[in-house]
Amino acid sequence: MLNLAILSRGAALYSTQSLFRAARRRGHYVRVIDHQRCNIVIEQGIPQIIYEGVHLIGMDAMIPRIGASVTDYGAAVIRQCELMGIYTATRSEALLMARDKLKCLQKLSAEGINVPRTFIAGAPEDVPFLIDRMGGAPVVIKLLESTHGVGVILAESRNAAIALAETFFKLNQPVILQEFIREAEGADIRAFVVGRRVVASMKRQASEGEFRSNLHRGAEATLEFLTEEEEKIVLKAARLMGLEIAGVDLLRSRRGPLVMEVNASPGLEGIETTTGVDIAGAIIENVEHGLERFTKSRR
Predict the structure, then answer these.
(1) In terms of domains, do 41 and 63 share one?
(2) How many whole angstroms separate alpha carbon 233 and alpha carbon 204?
(3) 129 and 175 assigned to the same domain
(4) Backbone dihedral region of 135: left (phi > 0), alpha (psi from -120 to 50 degrees) or beta?
């Protein structure tokens, strides 16, 4: 029996509960810990965490479920766990890399992964040139930090794209300009990676009049299998991000599969419900094997 902890701000959330039940089914002791309530103690040679007035001790492994709004502090808590010798299912640096859309795309592209054509404007006066270089409107405007489709806008015209970009610049928000993949027809593929395999995949189809295929935006999810090429790309993308658990989002384009994003804390509800796969169970099993390897490496 292992002593496991799930780092989550919402004990009642579907993903947290699914992981909790899966761990209990496999006979482990498990508790949910709110990472925002974790107090990091930095002393020479004695890394510690105090939670609800008590030192956290005796934990074998942590499973992070870190929301986008608390990425930095969540990563700091994970890093403290790493320093304390606790196995973490997601490493702190991997979380930070995946959450930074710019760094993520830079890394994937540099390593040969095909991504949508993307420009990051350094100054608002360069936006018109970049839009023209991309081939004109429509163009997707994204904030560097966006989630569930918030901060992702389709600009139908050149003028609209320029105005949106200028507005974000005035708010000190760097923006990503990304090509619109019309042939995807408002659909993307979410592939869920656990360890070194794709355990489930689904197609998300945007609702009528919407181009964002997020389930939170009313998209419809259906079971969808990956091609051999897509599976290789998905596994490579997760490996490049250093993630054992990842949701990789693909667009099917005329020039082949394009990786849009690698999610370091993908939700379980939509894909477990759609595919019927016990993804939480696969995650707990992967944690067991990961902890075994981790323990051997420290001997």
Answers:
(1) yes
(2) 19
(3) yes
(4) left
Per-position pLDDT tens, the chain of length 299? 999 999 999 999 999 999 999 999 999 999 999 999 999 999 888 899 999 999 999 999 999 999 888 999 999 999 999 999 999 999 999 999 999 888 999 999 999 999 999 988 888 888 888 889 988 889 998 876 655 556 788 888 889 888 888 888 888 877 788 988 888 888 899 999 999 999 999 999 877 656 565 555 567 889 999 999 999 999 999 999 999 999 999 999 999 999 999 999 999 999 999 999 999 999 999 999 999 999 888 76
Co-location of 198 and 103 in the same domain: yes
For residue 217, with 0-12 CB atoms within 10 Å meaning exposed, 13-18 middle and 19 or more buried, which class applies?
middle
Looking at the fold, whether 209 and 147 belong to one and the same domain comes out as: no
Query: How do 38-41 and 87-88 pair as beta strands?
Result: unpaired
Kindly state the greatest CA–CA separation across the chain: 62
d(CA 38, CA 52): 8
Q: Which domain holds residue 207?
A: 98-114+183-264
Q: Show the tokens assigned to 296.
A: 């051997």
Cα-based distances in Å from 29 to 8, 19, 34, 59, 293 = 16, 12, 17, 10, 20
Closest CA to 64 of 55, 76, 56, 52: 76
The answer on 235 and 154 residing in a single domain is no
